[in-house]
Amino acid sequence: MSCTVKNKGREEGEYEGSVIGQNSSSQNGLIASSSDLSIDESLLVDPKMLFIGSKIGEGAHGKVYEGRYGDRIVAIKVLHCGSTPEERIALESRFIREVNMMSRVKHENLVKFIGACKDPLMVIVTELLPGMSLRRYLVNLRPKQLELHVAIGYALDIAQAMDCLHANGIIHRDLKPDNLLLTANHKSVKLADFGLAREESVTEMMTAETGTYRWMAPELYSTVTLRQGEKKHYNNKVDVYSFGIVLWELLTNRMPFDKMSNLQAAYAAAFKQERPPIPDDISPELAFIIQSCWVEDPNLRPSFSQIVRLLNEILFTVAPSPPPLPESAATTSNGTIAKFSVPARGKFSFIRQLFAAKRSRNLQ
Questions:
Q1: From the candidate CATH numbers 3.30.1330.60, 3.30.420.40, 3.30.200.20, 3.30.70.3300, the one assigned to the domain spanning 1-128
Q2: Given 128, 152, 302, 362, which is the most exposed site by the fewest CB atoms within 10 A?
Q3: Is the pTM of this model over 0.85?
Q4: What is the spatial distance between Cα 231 and Cα 239, in angstroms, rounded to a whole number?
């Protein structure tokens, strides 16, 4: 269950147009008390070089602004500082985790970490993607759907990013379209927001604090008596469940459990084993991935490396063909045009048919 801690020391928009390095201690006097933070000095940026512009997003744990770091346009996430010493300690711990995890994983489908500062505000600086969130993009597109090869391409981007996190022992716990950002040309997707991420170990028991119900795995909240702060066992397969919901959404462009409130969706998924309906026009291969991701038993869900392999196979068959070259010609490495003979074209056609037949047998 996510915990919203509001920054009571500042009014809406107060950070906009400000330089972080200026004196901006909070109303409760705790903003500068950061001696317990243990972040490598090489990860810190000079707050005097940060300038906060307009707000571009907001989550449970902070606000995100467009800004500038030196001469570079960046995204600046200002974390809530809490209104009590206890809140401050908890939020500092989350800040440390997020910075350390973002700094150690690098992938083309993960938002690039630039740096952080801890005084006078807890701030994380990342690359700024000029596109929009996947959530907003899908909403703007409705009632139309994504083209199939685009939807699968986005899903592959997400699965590759998650595979990288899991390979580094990190559970994201908040995988949803709001935390997925499009590049400027809308060609690919990058995963953002490590605010709820956790490092995974075999013996660790993690808190029930989690992301948004509609995308959450049932094992995160299925114990009725579980109170905030209590411990509960789960593993990285909670991200696989969330991915299954996101993949369904990419293919249908519908809100999961759209007829239900958040709590109704949680109850239906956890106690009635309900899942969003899979339309008939979704291929059996994609339906299989979705259903295997959100199966009740976490141990039966696939790994992201398996999901990546399956999606790659499907994408190969649905990707749009490149425009034909004039007169069945192909460009050679030295830039000259070489024409394919009729027998050569027939040979390539035969190879494509052979591959399709082999794949069909494997699926049976």
A1: 3.30.200.20
A2: 362
A3: no
A4: 18
Q: If you classify domain 134-318 with CATH, what class do you get?
A: mainly alpha
Tens of pLDDT, residue by residue over 53-91, are 998 887 767 888 999 998 899 999 998 887 888 888 888
Query: Could you tell me which residues are annotated as the binding site?
Result: 77
Domain borders along the chain are: 1-128, 134-318, 326-363
Q: Is 163 a catalytic residue?
A: no
Task: Tell me the binding residues for ATP.
Answer: 77
Contact (Cβ atoms closer than 8 angstroms) between residue 255 and residue 246: no
Token pair for residue 145?
Answer: 């759907």
pLDDT for 12 equals: 43
First to last CA, the chain: 41
